[in-house]
Amino acid sequence: MTGRGLPDQAAGRGHSRGHGRRKASSGTAGNSGSSPYTLTIPLHFLWDVEHNITIRKIFDHRIGRRLQKMLDDVRQRRNHLTTWLQPDIKKALLVHWETDDGFMHRHLTNRANRTSAM
Known about the structure:
Residues 1-36 are annotated as: Disordered. This protein is of the alpha+beta class. It has helices at 52-75, 87-99, 101-117, and strands at residues 15-25, 38-47. It has a domain at 86-118. It is 46% helix and 18% strand. The longest helix has 24 residues, at 52-75.
């Protein structure tokens, strides 16, 4: 490793694995399309290959929790937080959650378990 945390390519270690883009916007929320106020900042993450499995597990756990919270917002009908979901898909999910006996059983069981754990 070099002093700045970048992999030493001459030693044959490290690969560029994670790439992402983050948008920083100073425009108003709800703008569609590209805005002159939108700045795209490329993010590049580097780590040694031996850390791939650990990083993937952390990523999967965090994204799984985030998706769980987002779907819970849909189920709880927090409409101001669910603009990302298409209306027809949202309606289908709400119908499923209200009519599926298996889901309702798991929902009530989990609620009782959370209550008893407190």
